[in-house]
Specification:
Structural class: alpha+beta
Distance between the termini: 79 Å
Number of strands: 25
Largest sheet: 5 strands, antiparallel
Shape: elongated
Helix content: 25-40%
Strand content: 15-25%
Length: about 650
């Protein structure tokens, strides 16, 4: 039988179900009904001394016994409903219904009570014994509440690997039977641990006195020898070492934090009725699936003998067993993602998805913070990586075909805006769309924008999931593609500028659609299922053109990304947003599509593309594995990134023969 966790209690209700009888000037009880009604009404109102006056027991003992019932059950309120009364001469037997509210987070105990009465010189009086409180309570026994807490469930990756690590926790508690003064001892412990003593006292009063009652849980890192020594000086205070699944092994923002320790102050941070000893998800999947992961405790009202041993179970409420949550994450891919972001100069994000299903394989941030969810919710300018989307729009609109020329000058004026290639160069000869895509000739895309049109840009983007209607259990941004009516607006949108904002998750899903041939809604938790897919498959002939361009982009501009046996397809670019330089790499290899974003100070060297470096590290980690190191909530200790490269040095963009 496990100890019951602490709960906040309210005063017993003062209003009853009975109409109070006027007994003015009465010193005797003329009928058993009057005696029973008066006794129950007084007990319900908490006037235990008055209730004792309607019994033939020792007044002080009856008063103490009724008060003890309130403390032993830690009652929020108790209500009575008078039943039948049978009378046989000067003897009677009354039945009554009891509704005992065990408090916030606990059930209501309903049972039928019975009390015998005898008519004597003072009129009808209740024959007092412990069975008046409950028919199965014998003299010398007391009531208590037992609370069997479920162990918190686990969150798993796609292969059943646990994603939450067990933390060592110190439970500060008491053995009530060994306390000289419960109120004084619990108050002293509460002050030592900076806790509110009232709810702790409520728990101790209602608990089995011979069982250890954990009151406050603290991570071992917050507990030192001095604190343990001071706690040990309080009579009846003890500590126990336990382990609780609290810390995410990977992806803190996605897996989430768990409370259950003093420093979290659960009651002030999370809505709901939580008690000491409960574990509560504060964020991420831990919060979304709190009910499934925590389950519900089994609560029992029991009787205890004079030696403190349990003698009977009067009522039991079965809890709900805690369970596990199966995600689509791949622990090895996730480790590779987190390792790849190690050493970022600022914020950085990497999301990987399965190309055929849209299942999320990894989601990482460079900060390691549980509050940093921009991998899913960020709204960033994609810059030139959006050309894989605008290439599809150009093909679907008919403005460009797979083999038609698509000139690439170094600069173009559209409306009142001037657009220049990132490298400042141009493509000689008669380049086609695939070549413009491979060498990130943004001017080539700008020049066909008016023929493509704003509507087609938005439609093609939506067919790749950008700005479409999809969601995950966690907050996400599907992206925004809002193109103005002018030619310059369409030109800017074609190269991922004005009116276009995406998240790393959205771009990873777009790359997966290009690889697979159709866009698939993302999935993170298997039982939730995927988001709805966009309508219709993409034209395979159009996709082959885009794939060719993305493959040439890797082989010609950043061949170091080509790790592993399978070819890598992708696009890298830089964009400026809010005085920050955004470094992107979006692509796929085999059945993994991914997007990397690095937020970099523009003052840093222009010859380092952090997203390309991270992409290289990620694919290397996927191919060869990442050595497991000590995992913490604040991030992973992983090998540093390799040397950086400059993807904007574009072969074939200088004047001269076409390459």
């Amino acid at each position: 039988m496990s100890p019951r966790p602490l709960g906040r209690r309210i005063a017993a209700a003062g209003s009853g179900l009975f109409v109070a009888l006027s007994l003015a000037a009465c010193t005797t009880h003329p009928s058993p009904e009057v005696a029973v009604r008066s006794f129950l009404l007084s007990w319900q109102d908490g006037d235990h001394a008055r209730a004792a006056g309607f019994t033939n027991g020792d007044q002080a003992e009856v008063e103490a016994a009724l008060a003890d019932v309130h403390d032993q059950l830690d009652l929020a309120s108790v209500r009575f409903d008078l039943g039948t009364i049978t009378r046989d001469g000067d003897q009677a037997l009354a039945e009554f219904e009891v509704s005992a509210d065990l408090g916030i987070g606990d059930p209501v105990w309903n049972y039928t009570g019975r009390m015998p009465l005898t008519d004597g010189p003072q009129g009808w009086l209740i024959d007092w014994s412990s069975s008046v409180v409950h028919p199965d309570l014998d003299d010398g026994e007391r009531l208590a509440v037992s609370y069997e807490l479920e162990e918190r469930g686990q969150i798993f990756d796609r292969s059943g690997e646990p994603l939450v690590a067990a933390d060592s926790v110190t439970a500060f508690g008491v053995l009530p039977a060994e306390m000289d003064d419960k109120e004084e001892g619990v108050t002293e412990l509460a002050e030592l641990l900076d806790e509110d003593p009232d709810p702790l006292l409520n728990r101790v009063r209602s608990a089995p006195p011979e069982q250890f009652q954990p009151l406050v849980l603290m991570r071992d890192s917050s507990v030192d020898g001095t604190l343990l020594s001071e706690a040990g000086k309080i009579a009846g205070v003890q500590t126990e070492e336990i382990e609780i699944n609290l810390s995410p092994r990977v992806s803190p923002f996605l897996v989430g934090e768990v409370a259950g320790t003093a420093e979290h102050r659960v009651s002030s941070r999370v809505a709901g009725s939580y008690q000491a000893g409960d574990t509560v998800g504060l964020s991420g999947l831990q919060n979304l699936f709190q009910h499934e992961l925590a389950g519900n405790a089994t609560t029992q009202v029991v009787t205890l003998g004079e030696d403190g041993e349990q003698t009977a179970v009067l009522e039991s409420w079965e809890g709900v067993r805690s369970g596990g949550i199966e995600t689509t994450l791949d622990l090895n891919v996730q480790r590779a993602a987190e390792s790849a972001l190690e050493g970022m100069p600022g914020d950085g994000y990497l999301v990987a998805v399965d190309t055929a299903s849209g299942e999320v394989l990894a989601a990482a941030n460079a900060s390691g913070q549980a509050t940093d969810d921009a991998a899913f919710t960020g709204a960033y300018s994609p810059g030139g990586t959006f050309t894989m989307v605008s290439a599809l729009a150009a093909l679907e609109s008919g403005a460009v075909t797979s083999d038609s020329p698509m000139p690439c000058d170094y600069q173009s004026e559209v409306g009142d805006r001037t657009f220049t290639n990132p490298s400042g160069g141009f493509l000689a000869g008669d380049p086609d769309l695939a070549r413009n895509l491979a060498f990130l000739c943004t001017v080539g895309f700008v020049d066909v924008a008016s023929e493509v049109g704003a509507e087609q840009i938005q439609d093609s983007a939506a067919r790749l999931g950008l700005g479409a209607d999809w969601q995950l259990p966690l907050p996400t941004s599907t992206g925004t593609v809002e193109v103005g009516s002018g030619d310059a607006d369409a030109a800017a949108a074609m190269i991922g500028e004005d009116g276009v904002e995406v998240s790393p998750l959205g771009m990873a899903l777009a790359a997966a659609a290009i690889a697979d041939g159709s866009w698939n809604g993302p999935t993170l938790v298997r039982e939730e299922g995927p988001s709805p897919a966009t309508e219709g498959s993409l034209d395979e002939a159009h996709l082959e053109v885009i794939r060719e361009g993305l493959r040439e982009a890797v082989t010609n501009r950043f061949p170091e990304v080509g790790v592993g046996e399978e070819p890598v397809y992708g696009q890298a670019a830089r964009a400026e947003q809010d005085d920050t330089s955004l470094h992107w790499f979006v692509g796929y290899q085999g059945d993994i599509a991914f997007a990397v974003l690095a937020e970099v100070d523009p003052e840093m060297t222009m010859w380092q593309q952090y997203a390309v470096t991270a992409a290289t590290g990620f694919l290397n980690g996927v191919a060869h594995g990442v050595p497991e190191t000590e995992e913490t909530v604040e991030g992973q200790q992983q090998p540093p990134l390799g040397e950086a490269v400059n993807p904007d040095s574009l072969p074939g963009t200088e004047a001269g023969p076409d390459h």
